[in-house]
Design brief:
The complex is a heterodimer of chains A (about 260) and B (about 425). Chain A is an alpha/beta fold and about 260 residues long. Helices cover about 40% and strands about 25% of the residues of chain A. The chains are: A alpha/beta (about 260), B alpha/beta (about 425). The complex binds adenosine-5'-triphosphate (ATP) and magnesium ion (MG). Magnesium ion (MG) binds next to α1 of chain A. Chain A: InterPro entries: AAA+_ATPase, ABC_transporter-like_ATP-bd, ABC_transporter-like_CS, FeS-cluster_ATPase_SufC, P-loop_NTPase.
């Protein structure tokens, strides 16, 4: 079993504190969902875990199986087993999806141990078929001109090919039609199991109908303010966030006051 | 103001060069005439690059003798790398100033296609040469360098595609430059008659580091009504030249001239690329990529001038600049009066890899007609950190991520080149140059 621990994480962007002490522990064989209103720091958490250069961790820890993630470069974090499906994946003109994926897979291998082209193609074809992606997509330039839904599918394709220990999925369900949502969920469920832990950021129960989470966390104002099981998400879907705010005495004006 | 310049050869030397080559008298006169003009005319004035002090004139030798290749087996490795010796049916190899190898399929010969070195063309295809050689696309007296070129032409190729002849497989030309003393006054004259089609790919290769000669290349592509020409080139000449490279297109009604140029020469170079869309519905898709390095000074001036109604001009220029390279990317879409419904688009992007490098993208639209569409995009910047982050988040090292982004940035031309070996060679040159 592998564990990803986030301890009292504080993160700033451009000098503004966004995360104000996040605590979270994820094990393999677990699926966690993070929900919360817009702008409460969910993507910030994901970016800080992956090491986005714009996000500055001012205090706290991220530990992956006893190793200090914060000391690692972005590529080292990926090699250590972390994967982030981004809310807004980048477009890389001129680099084909297939070439990129092969580089990503080979980056994890020793020199001379690169995946054979045949094996790679076989695996790619199989995974793309599983995700119902047209074959020509592998020769398209990475995310260039992809629709919102195609980009999300492509993120899952990458995750399935790279096989990380922990997948962090930032709004993987946004902008997906119902068929695409089913396919993407199928991909995530396929990964589910002993060697894989997952943190899904979402606004919608809809995704969780396909992938039942083991744990649900609510983020507000840069903190995890409430955790529970799958039933917590259902209650949020039905009632919104007001009851949590009331329960915890959180005022909507907090952020505004800070800025004033 | 005109300044008389001392040229590297006298008029008499030009005359005897022509006579020694058994050129027709008319061509000797043409050269002599051009040499006289070269003495008087000014240098061109590429926008934003001052070349007054550049020495395009002096050289030790006008022509050097090189041994031809008796068979394909004799080709040096550098040439073998770009030529598929088994499959390539139509091939011309020039070694410095010497036509060193030529192969033309029976099929093309039977169809009346001419694919021969320029010296032979000057002698054996007098009428065609007289009709097209610096008469239609490029004029002798545009400036000192066009005149100098006309006077001193010492290599190049003539391609003539008769009416309705469609050549499926690309014609390949390799200019091998393995003598540092050589000067290349190459002239490429490609005439595609009505409703013909041809793809032409040339490669310039230097096998040494430091050159001591001059490069003054003029290319004329003439596409008659409804003809289609695809022109690919990879220039990879050594450091030390002061190069003038002019590639020009002349497209008549319904004609198409597409360019895919990988401009990797290591010398200071003035690149002039003009395509004149004369006829209605004529089109040109111009793509170039370049990597500037060392102390190179580069000017890429690309102009598509559109007279034709409903004509379409597309310019794409991508450059990577490192070390202390300085570059100007002038892109001009010019729609002339009468060119209704014409469309002119251009995109110039420069990636800067080091502090000391300079790159200026200078997009210009000149529109003399109301009913047209036009657009331009230009940017100069560094490798996008968000792209690097994305790639690195998949486990790819920073170095490899940069490499991928740069190759991707230069891919538009690589992807267009129709000969596998040339494509591969360009990729390798890019690899070497950006490292
Ligand atoms: N460059 C920046 N400068 C200042 N504030 C920023 C900057 N980038 C992000 N923020 C702020 O950080 C806060 C958290 O953003 P984040 O993207 O983490 O929210 P989120 O919870 O993912 O929201 P959503 O549900 O809308 O995706 C927001 O208030 C946002 O405006
Ligand atoms: Mg977000």
């Amino acid at each position: 079993m592998a564990t990803l621990e986030i301890k009292d994480l504080h993160v700033e962007i451009d000098g503004k504190e966004i995360l104000k002490g996040v605590n979270l522990t994820i094990n393999t064989n677990e699926i966690h969902a993070i929900m919360g209103p817009n702008g409460t720091g969910k993507s910030t958490l994901a970016s800080a875990i992956m090491g986005h250069p714009k996000y500055e961790v001012t205090s706290g820890e991220i530990i992956l199986d006893g190793e200090n993630v914060l000391e690692m470069e972005v590529d080292e974090r990926a090699q250590a087993g972390l994967f982030l499906a981004m809310q807004y994946p980048s477009e890389i003109p001129g680099v084909t999806n297939a070439d990129f994926l092969r580089s990503a897979i080979n980056a994890r291998r020793e020199e001379g141990q690169e995946i054979s082209l045949m094996k790679f193609i076989r695996e790619l074809d199989k995974t793309m078929e599983f995700l119902e992606m047209p074959e020509e997509m592998s020769q398209r330039y990475l995310n260039e001109g992809f629709s919102g839904g195609e980009k999300k599918r492509n993120e899952i394709l990458q995750m399935m090919m790279i096989k990380p220990t922990f997948g962090i999925l930032d709004e993987i369900d946004s902008g997906l039609d119902i068929d695409a949502l089913k396919v993407v969920s199928k991909g995530i469920n396929e990964m589910r199991g002993e060697g894989f832990g997952c943190l899904m950021i979402t606004h919608y129960q809809r995704l969780l109908n396909y992938i039942t989470p083991d744990h649900v966390h609510v983020m507000m104002q840069g903190k995890v303010v409430k955790s529970g099981g799958a039933e917590l998400a259902q209650r949020l879907e039905a009632e919104g966030y007001e009851w949590i705010k009331a329960e915890l005495g959180i005022q909507d004006t907090d952020v505004v006051t800070e800025e004033a | 103001m005109t300044v008389e310049t001392k040229l590297a050869l006298s008029v008499e030397e030009v005359r005897s060069f022509s006579q020694n080559n058994a050129e027709p008298a008319a061509f000797t006169d043409f050269r002599v005439n051009a040499m006289e003009k070269a003495a008087e005319l000014d240098l061109p004035k590429p926008d934003r690059t001052n070349i007054k002090k550049w020495n395009f004139i002096d050289f030790a030798n006008h022509t050097v003798e090189s041994a031809p290749f008796a068979s394909l087996e004799e080709l040096p490795e550098e040439v073998k790398a770009v030529v598929d010796t088994e499959k390539q049916e139509n091939l011309y190899i020039q070694r410095n100033n010497t036509p060193a190898f030529v192969k033309v399929s029976e099929e093309l010969k039977n169809k009346g296609v001419i694919f021969t070195d320029i010296q032979t063309a000057i002698r054996d295809h007098k009428d065609l040469v007289e009709k097209y050689f610096m008469t239609t696309a490029v004029k002798v007296d545009e400036h000192k360098l066009t005149a100098y070129h006309a006077a001193l032409v010492n290599g190049g190729i003539f391609v003539y595609v008769p009416r309705n002849v469609v050549i499926e497989e690309p014609l390949q030309v390799v200019f091998l430059n393995d003598n540092a003393e050589a000067s290349l006054f190459n002239h490429v004259l490609l005439v595609a008659e009505e409703s013909s089609a041809v793809t032409y790919v040339e490669t310039y290769i230097s096998t040494f580091e430091e050159a001591k000669g001059q490069v003054n290349v003029v290319t004329e592509v003439i596409a008659k009504d409804n003809a289609q020409v695809t022109f690919g080139a990879v220039d990879n000449l050594a450091h030390g030249y002061t190069a003038y490279v002019n590639r020009r297109g002349h497209a008549q009604r319904d004609a198409k001239i597409d360019w895919a140029l990988g401009l990797m020469t290591n010398s200071d170079t003035i690149y002039e690329n003009t395509t004149n869309l004369i006829g209605d519905n004529s089109t040109s898709d111009f793509k170039m990529v370049t990597v500037g390095s060392g102390d190179q000074k580069l000017n890429f001036t690309t102009l598509i001038r559109q007279w034709g109604k409903n004509s379409d001009g597309q310019i794409l220029k991508h450059g990577v600049m490192k070390d202390k390279a300085q570059s100007i990317f002038n892109g001009i879409g010019h729609i002339m009066h009468g060119g209704t419904k014409a469309n002119a688009e251009q995109e110039s992007r420069v990636l800067m890899l080091s502090e000391g490098a300079r790159g200026d993208a200078n997009p210009i639209l000149l529109i003399d007609e109301d009913d047209v569409t036009a657009g331009h995009a230009a940017s100069v910047g560094r490798v996008d950190p968000t792209q690097l982050y994305y790639l690195m988040s998949r486990g790819i090292s920073k170095q490899e991520a940069e490499r991928l982004v740069i190759h991707g940035f230069l891919a538009p031309v690589v992807a267009q080149l129709p000969i596998e070996g040339v494509k591969k060679q360009l990729t390798e040159v890019i690899e070497r140059k950006v490292r």
